[in-house]
């Protein structure tokens, strides 16, 4: 089962991200209901392994915290292949990510060893975009659109299944893990 662990940005931030998507001159927008902040991509895993992981994720104790979307970025060498909303640095988010990755490794799931770059994917470019699409998106970034959405409160994270369809991925939440609200302040 193709799966990942993520945080949902909530309705207010989701609306601001969708409004920003509508301003992008190129790329295939991620559907609003699929917008998320990935903590760990698990790839294909057997159900038994995900059940073990579920138990480990239930053991994570962390306090609620806020995340501030601010700015835009793109991944790709010379041209963008993925456009994202950037997030301000957050020690609490880094700590939650580390705890999640630790739980993933405890059950024997290997993840790619790369630096955690918290972001919310807004759109993906075609595999071979034409010259005008590349020009339009690069000009969009050169004009430096200011972007700042309302901060969102992270009260929980979830384990999701991702099913690839011809029309795009369908994400279903398998389990949700609440954070400690009492310590938020």
Write a structural description.
This protein has four helices and ten strands. It has about 180 residues and is an alpha+beta fold. The strands form three sheets. A four-stranded antiparallel beta sheet has the order 3-1-9-10. It is globular. It starts with a strand and ends in a 7-residue tail after the last strand. The model has no long low-confidence stretch (mean pLDDT about 90).
Features:
4 helices; alpha+beta; four-stranded antiparallel beta sheet; 34% strand; 10 strands; 185 residues; Cyclic Phosphodiesterase, Chain: A
The CATH class is Alpha Beta
The total count of strands amounts to 10
Name of the CATH homologous superfamily: Cyclic phosphodiesterase
First and last CA, distance: 37 Å
Radius of gyration, whole Å: 17 Å
Described by strand count, sense and barrel closure, the largest sheet is: 4 strands, antiparallel
Alpha-beta classification: alpha+beta
Q: Bin the strand percentage.
A: 25-35%
What is this structure, in a nutshell?
With 185 residues, the protein is an alpha+beta fold. The chain is built from 4 helices and 10 strands. The chain has a single domain, classed as Cyclic Phosphodiesterase, Chain: A, CATH 3.90.1140.
Summarize the helices and strands and which ones pair or pack.
Layout: E1 2-7, H1 11-21, E2 28-29, E3 37-44, H2 47-58, E4 65-67, E5 69-75, E6 82-87, H3 91-106, E7 119-124, H4 131-142, E8 152-154, E9 156-165, E10 168-178
Antiparallel strand pairs: 1-3, 1-9, 2-7, 4-8, 5-6, 6-7, 9-10
